[in-house]
């Protein structure tokens, strides 16, 4: 069998290697961001389930309620 012929311009497949490396870096960054976001959501879920009344009161009062996403929630609750 013969390998797939490359373009005459890029005989050493430098562009292809660059795209593969960039894709791997982007995948790694996405995994780190999703992992951190997942841990933050998990933390907030445990905090809300353990004491929903005090967390809700803190969010209604304009504080974060010791939540990772509390700043976003307090802005939404208080109308930006």
Number of continuous helical runs = 3
- Reading the helices and strands in chain order gives HHH
Terminal-residue CA separation: 63 Å
Please state the average pLDDT score: 82
pLDDT < 50 runs, ≥5 residues: none
Describe the main β-sheet briefly.
none
Q: What's the overall geometry?
A: rod-shaped
What proportion of the residues form beta strands (DSSP E)? under 5%
Rg, rounded, reads 23 Å
Task: Record keyword descriptors for this entry.
mainly alpha; 0% strand; 68% helix; 3 helices
Would you give an account of this structure?
- There is one protein chain.
- This protein is an all-alpha fold and 80 residues long.
- The chain is 68% helix and 0% strand.
- The longest helix is centred in the middle third of the chain and has 37 residues, at 14-50.
- The model has no long low-confidence stretch (mean pLDDT 82).
What topology does this entry show?
Elements: H1 14-50, H2 52-60, H3 70-77
Task: Describe this structure in a few short sentences.
Helix content is 68%, strand content 0%. The protein is mostly helical and 80 residues long.
């Amino acid at each position: 069998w013969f390998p797939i012929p490359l373009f005459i311009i890029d005989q050493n497949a430098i562009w292809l290697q660059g795209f593969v490396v960039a894709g791997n870096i982007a995948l790694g960054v996405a995994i780190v961001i999703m992992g951190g976001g997942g841990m933050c959501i998990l933390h907030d879920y445990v905090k809300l389930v353990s004491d929903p009344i005090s967390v809700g009161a803190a969010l209604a009062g304009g504080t974060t309620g010791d939540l990772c996403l509390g700043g976003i929630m307090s802005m939404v609750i208080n109308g930006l």
